[in-house]
Design goal:
The chain contains six helices and 20 strands. By secondary structure, the protein is of the alpha/beta class. The protein folds into two domains: 258 residues, no CATH class; 52 residues, no CATH class. This is Fe-S cluster assembly protein SufD.
Amino acid sequence: MKSAPMLSSAFLHPAGQSLPQPLLALRKDRASALVDMPLPTRKTENWKYSSKYLKLADDMAISLPADGTVGSSLAVPGYKVVFLNGVMIPEASEYPDLDGILIQSFSDLDDEQGQALAEQLGRTLNHDQAQFARLNGARFEDGLLVRLKPGAVLDQPLFVIHETTADASGSAYPRILVEAGANSQMTLVEEYISQGESAAFTNTVTEFTLAEGANITNIRLNMEGENVQHIGATGVVQQRSSRFESHCVGFGGPLRRHDLQVRLEGEGAECKLNGVVVTQGKQHYDNHTCIEHIAAHCNSEETYRNIAADQSHAVFNGRIHIHQDAQQSNANMNNKNLLLSNGAEIDTKPELEIYADDVKCAHGATIGQLDETSLFYLVSRGIDRRQANVLLTMAFINELMQQIPVEAVRETAQTRLNEFFEQTFQEA
């Protein structure tokens, strides 16, 4: 019998040593736990559609250097923090100077602060489902800590720009932890971009803990190049009457994977998860989401849209778990998918697991193509066929795009979508 492939030991040797001692110790412990870690295969249930796209050569294990120029496609209308290959670049960042809001890099923490942080990292995630979050825990070289004191409000969005520079093969491990105090508010925008043409691997983890009444919006924009494999995880834990809103916009690549896990632990907590993915060529994108209704009287709403063209592949796996004590939960999940060619493939698997009897839950999924009747109608009104295709495809995702609350993100995403349309709908 053929043995399962294992993670190369080359990936268990981090380079950066500028972290406080407790974080270095944490990293070492987690690297030790990854010895003989099996890589996912087709038999790994939550990787069955994506394992064949994972290519981790030993030369990718090298940490990419944190030097060079950085840039962003966003016209940042707020505060920003810039990371280059997983390491914060202070001179390129602009922090808010507001009472009750603390923003620090992991490398700037003292040992006491580092110990407190080490006890928090990874607690929001189910690592059996987000396996590669363990690798981030063994390899992160820096990170961003955001603490909002009770009642603190960030008056503008905080943009965190993660740039991967792949002038040579290597990897980067960005990490963020947001601790939102009671009744605090903020919007966090994550932008993932890249430059360079060598094969690279980006492995990200972002975590949120929301105290009672906290209100957090997270926007995630993935626009890395065709040479970058990206595996990311976002973990969220919510307490009483808190609200978390997520908007994920992703453009395909050789491998794109995002695990989003939300735990509603306090009564009256709410979450809203929106996602838009487009793929073309031979690109691949895989979204796995899980919402755990643990406390009673919680609400969740999830809407994801996938568009696949050419010979590309998109995956959506959404799971809602209603625990026994989560009475009077209200959960709704909807996934719609659009195939733009006969060679494209979309796999969708919505799941409901319910152990409470007084709940309102619904889920649904559809996969289809552009409606020929609608195309004919537009063409008959004088619109050329290419523009008709663009209009109908944009209409499919426009509802979700318009809900993104930051204009700069909407405009940047629209620019990339126009490029997608230009390449997908060529004039005959």
